[in-house]
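OP here, attaching both records as promised.
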Amino acid sequence: MNEISTIDKSTRRRAIDKVTWIGIFINILQTVSKLVGGVMTQSQALVADGIHSLSDLITDGMVLVASKHAHAEADEDHPYGHGRYETIATVALGILLLIVAIGIGLDAVDRLMSDKPLPIPGPIALAIAAFSIISNEGMFRYAIHVARRINSTMLEANAWHSRSDALSSIVVFIGLSGTMLGLPVLDAIAAIAVAFMIAHMGWKVSHSSVRELVDTALDNETVDAIKEHINAIDDVKHLHMLRTRKMADQALVDVHIQVSSKLSVSEGHRISEAVEETLKNNFAEINDVTVHVDAENDEAIDRTEPMPVLRNELILLLKEQWKDLPVTEHIDNITLHYIKNGVQVDLFLPLSVLSKLNDAQIIQNDIRQASLQVHNIQRVDVFFH
């Protein structure tokens, strides 16, 4: 359950943009230094790491574009907002990482199997790798802190991309050190290791976002907490058909609640509002709640049976049965309760129709007997007021 304070869209977008622009500056430095240094020192591992940093630059651009579109307000074409832009960008980021990993890995394997002697990089390559480790780890810690504060899966994915850069640079550093000690094969092996690390991160990032695109439910712990909060609300007898899904940093909830069939429409609506308020106040990521108010558990009803007709048609059928009962002309109100594929009827008559006390029982019996002739009528209660 996430109980962080709610952050408005403009603040969230500014935070994402700030982190991303800092990352772009660092990645430009790293891409240029690694590619130039890798070519000069003939280090395949460093060149592979430079390509990794170049992919970071591309993904940073994707993050900026996605951030702009994802934080646009809901409109007629996108009533739930534009959060899916962030999710799609995250999937694309993961796929890009996988493609980069495959390219680096194949090139390193080809170099290992070649008969050409493997070159030995110089100390400049080692210094560039060390700079990459320090800068990427610092960027990761900063970005992950901001991502978790504003609850952005896209920014968190990009942060882990920086961590993968730091780890890959550590592998490159070790490979370069071994190569300088007389084991040139370690440079190519380090490149393969970097490829595997990039591939793992790409799979992890894309897999979680694809799950979001296909509307996978929130985790079990959060769902259980949602149920507890709903069940704690007065007059909620039962909840069922609870559905949840993610959309970028937001969560959407759809739930059916069962209340007493004797409650008024307005009271049932007020209870549904209480459910919505409770969930939004206790779960910062939940921003849209749809509550269906039921008088019974929909899941326990056999929907293969024919449903009762609606009010206007049913009243006509009842009046046909009441035509020989003059007292029914004085009915003030008729309340219908659709329960278990049947209808329970409450009739309200003025006390003025009674001439003596035992008239009440006679009137009730006559109306009940006539009304129960209508199909699906389960019960009839007559009230005098």
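Record two, same layout:
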Amino acid sequence: MKPQRHAAILELVRDRRVSSQEVLRDFLAERGFEVAQATLSRDIRELGLVKVPDENGGSTYTLPPGVTDPTPTLARLLPSLYLGSDGVGNLLVVKTVVGGAQPIAVGIDWEEWPEVLGTVAGDDTILLILRDVAHLDTIVRRIEEIAGV
């Protein structure tokens, strides 16, 4: 749901004048996405949208100059940033190169894997909290497959 909603938001800000969160919320509702204001604020922040002055003296949401796809896809990140992982119970520690933990954690959060309750990222380490002990091997295999390990 989140990836589809983000894609819709990006399309809307590219194709229409979106002057406020309320306007964006209405446009999303027209497309079948009913979102709370807090969710929409988080989406705007995650996508890196900015408000810029428009030709009518108001302002509109847009992507920052030079950004074409702000979504942090794991297929782009994991092959070059992933170093390894180890877990016990419903906890998985993922090691990355220095500076790699935050973007990978955001990518995992963005994917909304049902097995993952949440992530906590430092500079080179991510803690994944899994919903069940039985999910540990599944998540390790998924991460390693995406990383090409």
